[in-house]
Amino acid sequence: MTADLDQLKQEILRLTRDYARRAHAAYRPGDDPDRTPHADGQTIPYAGRVFTEDEVEAAVGTTLDFWLTLGTEGAAMESELAAFLGVRHSLLVNSGSSANLVAISALTSHRLPAERRLRPGDEVITVAAGFPTTVAPILQVGAVPVFIDADPVTGNARCDQLEAAYRPGVTKAVMMAHALGNPFDLAAVLRFCRAHDLWLVEDNCDALGCSYSMPRELAESLGFTTNSPGLDEGPDRVIRWTGTWGDISTQSFYPPHHLTMGEGGAVNIVRDQKLKVVAESFRDWGRDCWCPSGKDDTCGKRFDWQLGELPAGYDHKYIYSHLGFNLKPLDPQAAIGRVQLRRLPEFIEARKRNWQTLREGLVPTESVLEFSLPTHATGWDPQGGFSWDATGCRSDCSWFGFKISVKPDAPFRRTDLARELDAHRIGNRMLFGGNLVRQPAFVQLRADRPDALRVVGDLAGADAIMVDTLFLGTYPGLTAPMLAKEIEVILDFCRSR
Prior knowledge:
The chain has helices at 2-23, 53-65, 72-85, 96-106, 132-140, 162-165, 186-196, 216-221, 273-283, 331-361, 414-423, 440-448, 460-468, 480-496, and strands at 89-93, 123-127, 144-148, 171-177, 199-203, 211-215, 237-241, 248-252, 265-269, 369-371, 377-381, 385-388, 394-396, 401-406, 454-455, 469-473. With 497 residues, it is an alpha/beta fold. The protein is globular. It starts with a helix and ends with a helix.
């Protein structure tokens, strides 16, 4: 009977692969010869899922086994993601937004040192330009976000404002994203956090596969001596993936991101085992027990605990040490994610190539358009590439998007360009929420509770991003004709104006 079932499963999977090859050829990588050619006039999305029959087979295979909640596939993906990054643990969750919620919630745990524990009214420094769910969890745990400005060129925080944002005894953490796959100034942020004993939460949702390097002497002064797996710039430098410099980091596996599980995300625990325990508790209903779903008594003393005011011997699986959530993904999602993770190196390189293609093609528009520079870069030219500042730090971007800003003296505005791109069915997006402080939710929050957030300076850079900036896609599903079409439309538009 078992042999018959196994044979039947293999036949189902064979047919699944055949079906997927025929039905989903339009979603193969952009350089795959079996990908459906892009026809002129079809939409060019700014992002999307990129997969082959391998992912479909993985999803169907684990669904046939029908262990739906997080199980062996989830455990394997957590292990493989942690190994790729070189962090101590990765915990899968159901979205990048949930990852941010779990990460910031973990810092509120009573199991952390009292002086470092994030309590209601404490402050977390963040950046004004970005995606709202980087900031929302700060408010959701009762803390106060403190907004510093963004640099319109990199899209990242103006780190010269960190000290102005700091309040002794009140500031407990820094939480910010690597904007559009451009690492923020990790050296400056880490120096600041070390000086004031602050947590650093890296929102790495747009930046999986980006790296940041610095001179070894500087890295060692900040507590880093080793490279991330697979990275090396020689004995005099330390290079690490983004998401591995802070105390805790987050990932999103929503389809536009560097790899996808459909929905999904992860919380990466870089070093501290205690953070893993509390993050897992918040993810899993707030329970004290760490047994995986479907398993009991892995500690060997399930009925030997006495915690809180519960009677001695109360079932450890039903003891709750935190006010948590249920934020796990499904095991079939993890099966898809494992295949995607194996594709990640090629996806990273494709994003870099696509950014380079767009940048080279749009050189003639430099009088009216401004383009992003990696953090620490001071310029770019087609022959020499990037030039760098004197810090010795470098960032290597696996770009989430190709950022374009319309210069103030251009004869058109950002919305004019966006409408032209829309007219040609070219996907484009703002830099998410622009200046978040101007968003209706935050305007209402300030009206209802003026002390719910704090702002440093005038946020002129975030306003400029809000008014002048959009981005195109760099995702691995873009083909050469798609990129050529985008360049052609933008060149023609700029010439016509």
